[in-house]
Amino acid sequence: MIHIKNMYFSYGQSSYILKNLNFSIQDGSYISILGENGSGKSTFIKLLLNLLIPTSGHIENTFTRTAYVPQRFESLNTQFPITIEEILTCYQKARHIPGKKIIDDSLSLVKMQDYKKALVGTLSGGQCQKIFIARALMGNPDLLILDEPSNGVDIKSQNEIYQLIKNLNQEKKITVICVEHNLKAAIKNSTLLYHIAQGVGHICNPQNYIREYLIENTGVENYVSI
Amino acid sequence: MFQYNFMQNAFMIAILISILCPLIGMFLVLKRYSMMGDTLSHASFAGVAAGLMVHIHPILSAFCLTSIFGVLIEILRRHFKNYAELILVVILSLSVGIAITLISSGLVHANIDSFLFGSILTVTREDFYIVLLLSILSLIIISRLYHSLMFMIFDEEGAKISGINIKFINYTFAVLVAATISVSIRIVGILVISSLIALPIATALQLRKGFKTTLLFGILFSFIDIISGITISYWIDAAPGGVIAIMSVFVLAFVLFFQNHHFPFNIHLLNFKNMAKINNMTANEKRDSDGRRKFRIQSIFKPAWHQKYQTTKFTFETSQSEQRTINSGYSISKSAPRR
After folding, report:
1. Chain B interface mutation, best of A45, A114, A144, highest count of B Cβ atoms under 10 Å
2. Is the pLDDT assigned to residue B118 strictly greater than 80?
3. How big, in percent rounded to 5, are the helix, strand and coil portions of chain B?
4. ABC transporter domain: from which residue to which, for each copy (chain A) (predicted)?
């Protein structure tokens, strides 16, 4: 469980990027974090990952094995000479995860076992994302944080990835926090949406969010079937 | 030529350098920091000049000053986050400034040319022992940090989240670069050391292999460069640094040329197994009228110039993990490129 209480954050002396966040994440939930570019979503994730420290307020995190799947495709160097097996081995060594078959097992979970010896640059966007999910699953995490998992991925692969994340959430009871621009996927999969706008966050349930979103953007309140 | 002690020493040092330089170079090149080698080699120039001035062994003094400058680069890098290359210019200017001032003021009473261009004749057994000690220490540290370094260079944020101490590794690595440069200046020379750090890796990268294999090929190319360079420099009586640099570029050009042309030893075959696996899983797989599976691999498997038909048999795993052997003559000869 994560409890965030009266949390403020700013970089240095600049104005607050996140203001007075109060939020609880229950075990086993699937939370999508929505918001426009520059709204503070990535900063929020970095705070959850302990890469940044809140300016005031506090975060209480009871999850012990947090895994992170970064937003990947723009920064990934496709010429980097590294095989999938080597990517996973690095992670295994860094996290001191025991087990000789752990790499094969995690690749099997995402159905990518045939790509163990492939170079990272030869994979498509969707395959690449699956590999990073497989990497995150190696330490048997209890919290999985994903940053825009559908970014740069075709529709078919998007469906596969979201199905995989949903299965992990429902069958393995892994708590999922997902930064999203994909509204459809967020509403379809999440148990809760957390919307951050100009540093202020509020919780909304998926169906209400559609209504609010429609009113805000079109002025029409209408039911949309997803 | 091996009857001479200096040649024995030179070759023993050369073997150590041919392992160390690509090991460090692999991480530097992939970090997009190849010019750090050049900057620190100039720092070692100042170290050699200082060592000769105060009568300390020049390799040791070069190691000390290069380590200090290496750590200084890492410290300054945090202040000039978006202008990392600017720091290299600052340190390079400072190093060359110190070296030229010491030499031109007449405080150094020794021949510094052998350090600038490399020299076989002046290599002593004492040099070898110092190089051996620094090399063993460096190899132990690299083997301990190998996976952390690889992770950090591929995905720095991920490495940080996974608990890798990025700062410690960066500082340690700076000292390792310093050690590698210090041990190499005797043979290769200050002016061309960066060629031995970057070029064998640049050559190995053309083969498009995994990290470990690229590193091993880098060591192999480095070995070829340095051994052929020293041998040729012995016979033509030239400074080894220059010949090694020329050989490095020549080997790179050789691999680049034959990577894109037909050649008796088909370099493309090195990638064959993985590519076949990938093709097997994608839309490139087709079935013919008899229901037999065919794989589109003509773009990878180029016939050698002296071959009319591919008679090579190759094996790869299918998605069901079964082993299949395909006679390439059947499926490839139709789609072999025209000549």
Report:
1. A114
2. no
3. 70, 5, 25
4. 2-223
